[in-house]
Design goal:
1 helix, 2 strands, alpha+beta, 79 residues, two-stranded antiparallel ribbon, Secreted protein
């Protein structure tokens, strides 16, 4: 169960990160014994516009004439 949660969390993080524009603003270097310098990034998240609207869809009516059907009717009671 923990593996499933870990995989879901990693997938969510990867998806969220893929929607961002990341620009590196400073080069990084390996730390020395006394310290180091980590790279810096400017991250701008993607802009998402969510909107709803009401749409009317015409659904065609279907006329089925059962009297013209051939064969035996299927009732589902057969054993």
């Amino acid at each position: 169960m923990r593996k499933i949660i870990a995989v879901a969390a990693a997938a969510t993080f990867a998806f969220g990160l893929s929607a961002c524009d990341v620009d590196q603003t400073e080069e990084g270097e390996l730390p020395e014994v006394e310290g180091g310098n980590l790279p810096e990034y400017d991250v701008e998240p993607a802009e998402v516009d969510v909107d709803t609207k009401e749409v009317t869809v015409e659904v065609p009516t279907v006329d089925v004439d059962v009297d013209d059907a051939e064969g035996e009717p299927v009732t589902g009671d057969e054993e």
